[in-house]
UniProtKB/TrEMBL annotation:
Compartments where located: Cytoplasm
InterPro entries: GIY-YIG_endonuc (IPR000305), GIY-YIG_endonuc_sf (IPR035901), GIY-YIG_UvrC_Cho (IPR047296), Hlx-hairpin-Hlx_DNA-bd_motif (IPR003583), RuvA_2-like (IPR010994), UVR_dom (IPR001943), UVR_dom_sf (IPR036876), UvrABC_protein_C (IPR050066)
Keyword DNA damage: yes
Domain UVR: residue ranges: 202-237
Name listed for the protein in its UniProt record: UvrABC system protein C
SMART domains recorded: GIYc, HhH1
GO BP annotations listed: nucleotide-excision repair; SOS response
SUPFAM superfamilies according to UniProt: C-terminal UvrC-binding domain of UvrB (SSF46600), GIY-YIG endonuclease (SSF82771), RuvA domain 2-like (SSF47781)
GO molecular-function terms, A-Z: DNA binding; excinuclease ABC activity
The protein's role, per its UniProt record: The UvrABC repair system catalyzes the recognition and processing of DNA lesions. UvrC both incises the 5' and 3' sides of the lesion. The N-terminal half is responsible for the 3' incision and the C-terminal half is responsible for the 5' incision.
Length: 602
């Protein structure tokens, strides 16, 4: 039965809330919010003429659900949460799964450290940010090393030093690991670093200038000269921030729409300092305007992120006051949304608009190139149409240790990173790549066989005929049909552009050549799978090595462990040493040497 929208509207209350439209198959079409549900939902079914986009959606509606809220602000918040989690087809969808990085200052230690941090902020200490990119965080950490010399090394490295490291030698650390600075002096450096990260650089300069005068008065000219250089560096940096920064905590947001693609560019300013810019490419329904895009972007983007006190937008948006009120309730401070600006804000807005246009132009050009590569791949592989979903598998390990398989996914618009997967391989002979590939493919395609996972049109395997045979065996065992399997084997000399494509179904090999757009696409997908596998393998290996085997040996404390590592040049050297060599180390008797050897060799 067709959905009777007029009859449904008569049953609705006049309360604020959220409405959801579904099609006949139960797929969510659209999520919207309303200050008055009866009036808002009624506007879809009682108007004689609608925009083409709205009319196309209404024709598909088979069911409508509502959720009543206490206020319109609650409805706006619930709408943003549902759009982000359910991804309706006709809503503007911000695709930004990547968490934002912070600068982390550890707590509960005599000698805290500064570090790059991404993820949950549940560690003891303070977090400064978020920053728009990892590059911005590393730039700031590099600057902090030069100005305040607070350590940035890992705790495991810090605890096992017997002499100062290179950072001390080049003047970027005060070597607290070996006691070359006392706790009180180090804490003063940490306090100044905190003040700087909070934007109180002027107060830091005043304190350092006073300390410089005091050092000069007591004739400690070496200390006074060091403080003078630190003050000069801070004043220079402050002058640069005055030129490039803003006078308030704010984000400047501009957007551009062209050829059914959209780009939103955000400039971040905190504590008068520019933290850089970041570009976003939301999924765009038909006929969306810049105002629609900005309203949805702001609501979704700041749903789970700290909100600055000021937002400068490139176009006026509907219900700006309501949105500002919701963000203020969420953040605990007043939030101003501005569109008509002058002075420095106007200049920053122009800069954001230029960034958005440049990023969109680059993406459109890249999209055209990618489309040509997909079309050429269909021609080379003799497919009826270009593949809609390509998956590629690769294996990474170090001499059989911590084996990880990766699966990356590419579509017509490029990598689909939310579908990437890693598989920790276990229960095989170390170094057996065939068994590792068989296990990873079995785990991936078992879900397809059960009707859960998406089925790829093209399956790329990093390897030759042996690895391709593993893929065919898995698909045959699980009864999965309709997947084209192609192996990507390295060419002579392992040079890029000379790869061989091994066609599983035709039993032949292709050599497209370095000028082939199809091979460029295949190589890009293969390289991405390789990068993703290596990253997972390294993290798994580092996690396994976080605790040294030596720490588990009774009688081996920090001092003896450091002596062993120093004498043999690291854990690999200790593993290669025999009982006699181990027992020659000061503090290691023969009984302890035998226990060490047994622990390292099973």
């Amino acid at each position: 039965m067709p959905f009777d929208g007029k009859a449904f509207v008569r049953t609705l209350p006049s309360s604020p809330g959220v409405y959801r439209y579904f099609d006949a198959a139960g797929e969510l079409l659209y999520v919207g919010k309303a200050g008055n549900l009866k009036k808002r939902v009624g506007s879809y079914f009682l108007k004689p003429r609608m925009e083409p986009r709205i009319a196309a959606m209404i024709a598909q509606i088979a069911r409508c659900e509502i959720t009543v809220t206490r206020t319109e602000g609650e409805a706006l918040l619930l709408e943003s949460q549902l759009i982000k989690s359910l991804k309706p087809r006709y809503n503007i969808m911000l695709r930004d799964d990547k968490s934002y990085p912070y600068i982390y200052l550890s707590g509960g230690e005599d000698f805290p450290r500064l570090a790059f941090h991404r993820g949950a902020r549940n560690l003891p200490g303070r977090f400064f940010g978020p920053y728009p990119s990892a590059f911005a965080v590393r730039e700031s950490l590099n600057l902090m090393q030069k100005l305040f010399k607070v350590r940035q090394c890992e705790d495991s490295y810090f605890r096992n030093r017997s002499r100062p490291c290179l950072q001390y030698q080049i003047g970027r650390c005060t070597a607290p690991c070996v006691g070359l600075i006392d706790v009180e002096t180090y804490r003063e450096d940490v306090r100044h670093a905190e003040m700087f990260l909070e934007g109180r650089s002027s107060a830091v300069i005043d304190e350092l200038a006073a300390a410089m005068d005091a050092a000069s008065a007591r004739l400690d000219f070496e200390r006074a000269a060091a403080l003078r250089d630190q003050v000069a560096a801070l004043r220079k940096l402050q002058a640069e921030h005055h030129v490039h920064g803003a006078s308030a905590d704010m984000d400047v947001i501009a957007c551009r729409i062209e050829a059914d693609q959209a780009c939103v560019s955000v400039l971040f300013f905190r504590n008068g300092i520019s933290l850089g810019t970041r570009d976003f490419f939301p999924r765009l329904p038909l006929d969306a305007t810049p105002a629609d895009l900005l309203a949805q972007f702001v609501a979704q983007f700041y749903l789970e992120r700290p909100v600055p006190r000021e937002l400068v937008l490139g176009a006026p948006i509907a219900e700006a006051e309501l949105l500002a009120q919701m963000l203020a309730e969420q953040s605990g401070h007043a939030v101003a949304i501005k569109t008509r600006v002058r002075g420095e804000r106007a200049q920053f807005l122009q800069l954001a608009e230029r960034n958005a246009q440049a990023a969109l132009t680059s993406r459109l050009a890249s999209r055209q190139t990618l489309g040509a590569r997909f079309a050429d791949l269909a021609r080379v592989l003799e497919l009826e149409e270009p593949p809609r979903r390509i998956e590629c598998f690769d294996i990474s390990h170090t001499r059989g240790e911590a084996t990880v398989a990766s699966c990356v996914v590419f579509g017509p618009e490029g990598p689909e990173k939310s579908h990437y997967r890693r598989f920790n391989i276990a229960g095989i002979t170390p170094g057996d790549d065939y068994a590792a590939m068989h296990q990873a493919l079995t785990r991936r395609f078992r879900k397809v066989a059960e009707g859960e996972g998406a089925r790829p049109d093209l399956l790329l395997i990093d390897g030759g005929s042996g690895q391709v045979a593993q893929a065919l065996d898995v698909l045959r065992e699980l009864g999965v049909d309709g997947v084209r399997v192609v192996g990507v084997a390295k060419g002579p000399g392992r040079r890029a552009g000379e790869e061989t494509l091994v066609l599983a179904d035709a039993g032949r090999e292709l050599h497209p050549g370095s000028a082939s757009p199809a091979l460029h696409l295949v190589a890009a997908v293969r390289d991405e799978a390789h990068r993703f596998a290596i990253g997972g393998h390294r993290r798994r290996r580092e996690k396994a090595r976080t605790q040294s085997v030596l720490e588990e040996v009774p009688g081996i404390g920090a001092r003896r462990r450091a002596a062993l590592l120093k004498a043999f040049g690291g854990l690999a050297g200790v593993e290669a040493a025999g009982v006699e060599e181990l027992s020659r180390i000061k503090g290691i008797d023969r009984g302890l040497a035998e226990r060490i050897y047994a622990a390292l060799h099973g």
